[in-house]
Fold each of these.
Amino acid sequence: MPNVFAPPHKGAEPRHEQVVFCQDEASGLRAIIAIYSTALGPALGGTRFYPYRTEDEALADVLNLSRGMAYKNALAGLDHGGGKAVIIGDPAVDKSEALLRAYGRFVQSLGGRYYTACDVGTYSEDMDVVARESRFVTGRTVANGGAGDSSVLTAFGVFQGMRAAAETVWGSPTLRGKRVGVEGVGKVGHRLVEHLREDGAEVVICDVNEQAVERVRARHPEVEVVDDRDALIRTDLDVYAPCALGGSLDDDTVPVLTAKIVCGAANNQLAHAGIEKRLADRDVLYAPDYVVNSGGVIQVADEIRGFDFDRAKARASGIYETTKRIFALAADEGVPPAVAADRLAERRMSEIGRLRGILL
Ligand SMILES: NC(=O)c1ccc[n+]([C@@H]2O[C@H](COP(=O)([O-])OP(=O)(O)OC[C@H]3O[C@@H](n4cnc5c(N)ncnc54)[C@H](O)[C@@H]3O)[C@@H](O)[C@H]2O)c1
């Protein structure tokens, strides 16, 4: 059983502030809401609806994800702490109006300490249902005043991070003439391909879903397609952009990477601690995933104030500067960028969070 009171392995000072188990037997709701930190403001993070095999597995995931959101929100410059929720069950079978509304009542019961949004297994339409019971819901449909699909700004943000990496490695913030491999051309990946082609990059893609590949090829017949990740990382690349699932950088892939830069949307790209060092040892510049993929959370955070696309896009443009700051700090302190990013996030949580000590 994961120990809620144990120090987090990232080494940051604050531990999870609050972990709430929610149950409604009649609707079948079994959910856990974890608030890692409210140092910067109300915790913000999505609801994952997933068929966890055990309660322990669900708890471990929500503790991990909520801590990750605190770091992501801190470096996105948001006035939000980190939180996340998991609902245990198969969304295709177990999702119902009653279950989502029961969940909404638990979110509401936290009085705004936690704002929820979409994640794996939940969609904007589900957030509309949750919002019938709670004010603390974002990521809603456009029809209900929400901002809609967050992958638009996620892809834009990843592209900004990639420009920053290109400037650091090749001296100019453009991918023009570079060969970029995009693994996974789903909601984010196919939009990233648009930015890359517009910027003049050569693009190679792979996806397990034939339709996703065809959608890209229909618009860009010049894009090269390879069979799978293994083929992608071994082909001659300047940049590798993991935009499918997490864990693509591991003990097998890192030694054979041809790319000089890794920058993509997927969450948790590093399969385990220590991979960031192996990348640095091979002189591969890794743009930390949670920094460059924060365009989506920037969008849902903006929606809380009443969505303004231009304002949210302007903030997502800041991912370029933040990524450059991380690379600079990494060089100054002689650590991999993933470590530098964590340090910057912890610094902001501590410096800005401390201000709450000034009585108003
Ligand atoms: N959508 C967002 O706003 C957002 C925000 C932050 C992070 N992310 C992360 O970015 C990644 C992509 O998100 P998305 O919204 O585009 O998801 P998606 O499901 O729309 O796209 C993922 C794509 O990857 C493909 N894929 C799955 N396994 C693969 C494999 N082994 N090899 C190649 N392709 C594979 C899928 O077929 C799909 O086309 C995810 O890891 C997600 O957690 C997304």
Amino acid sequence: MAEAAVLATRYGNSVVRLLAHHGFNSDISAVDEAEAKGIWSICPECEYRGAPNSVTNHRKKARH
Ligand SMILES: [Zn+2]
């Protein structure tokens, strides 16, 4: 849960502040950048987005 601790201690539990700190805002989507860099992928069957292994797990759970 290190990421939760970092979020709590450095960003007051605010994901918006975390994203802003890294230069992301409503115009620069971290999700879009992650996808563009191939860090994240999208489920071809629905709109689920996540790390490639998350998408694999999602597809097993969703059975598609
Ligand atoms: Zn899906």
